[in-house]
Design a protein that fits this description.
elongated, mainly alpha, 3 helices
Length: 73
């Protein structure tokens, strides 16, 4: 595993220490888990943005979709 060093404001370290204490985890574990979750969200957001920028993806009209969904005929 690679070690990474980062500088954090004292207020962030205080919050980190409080979270680590409450979770009964080490600082490193809380940081590692937070970064993993952030990167998962970043990946999901990147995919969503790519799909929004896709000119071949049709734009749906909300009124039309709603009508189709509520049509019980």
């Amino acid at each position: 595993m690679t070690q990474v060093t980062a500088r954090l404001p004292d207020s962030v370290v205080s919050g980190l220490d409080a979270a680590a204490s409450q979770l009964r985890r080490s600082r490193a574990d809380v940081i590692r888990r937070a970064i993993e979750r952030y990167l998962e969200d970043f990946d999901d957001l990147s995919v969503a943005i790519d799909r929004l920028r896709d000119p071949g993806d049709p734009v749906l009209d909300w009124d039309s979709v709603r009508r189709d969904l509520l049509d019980t005929d």
